Amino acid sequence: MTVRVERVFELPAPPADVWAFIADAERRAGAISVVEDFETTGDRTATWHVELPIPRMDRTIAVETEDVELDEPRYVEFVGRSRAMNVQGEHTLEATDDGTRLINRFIVDGRLPGVETYFKRKLDDELANLEADARAFLEP
């Protein structure tokens, strides 16, 4: 089973300011509660060390991520691959009269038992974390 989620945030800041947050892979990873550590491995690549609270998962999982498309300041897409799951994330920015609409799409394809169930229950919470971190970043 694949988990798909789309959420839209209306942020009171211009697209360039929102871009500074969402195009930063380390900030995106930092917003996700199960990311225990993050290390940059290249210009567009990084490893997220993820700890999932699921049965029989007693260590962190290294998720190799890559920003596969960057269209400043409009769009960023990343993929993450590991033995436990594959992840795809997209962030589209649209200027509005009051700031920026940030459209977030995530797909998680679990490869181990329990991964998809966890994300089915928790992906909304993780996106709420992303929104809260974006708002904190954008505050004057």
Index terms:
140 residues; alpha+beta; 7-stranded antiparallel sheet
3D structure, described in words:
It is built from three helices and seven strands. The termini are far apart. 27% of the residues lie in helices and 46% in strands. The model has no long low-confidence stretch (mean pLDDT 93). Strands 1-7-6-5-4-3-2 form a seven-stranded antiparallel beta sheet. Strand 5 and strand 6 form a beta hairpin. It has one domain (2-138): START domain (Alpha-D-Glucose-1,6-Bisphosphate, Chain A, domain 4). 24% of the residues are buried. It has helices at residues 15-22, 25-30, 115-138; strands spanning 2-11, 35-40, 45-50, 61-71, 75-81, 85-96, 99-110. The radius of gyration is 15 Å and the shape is globular. By secondary structure, the protein is an alpha+beta fold.
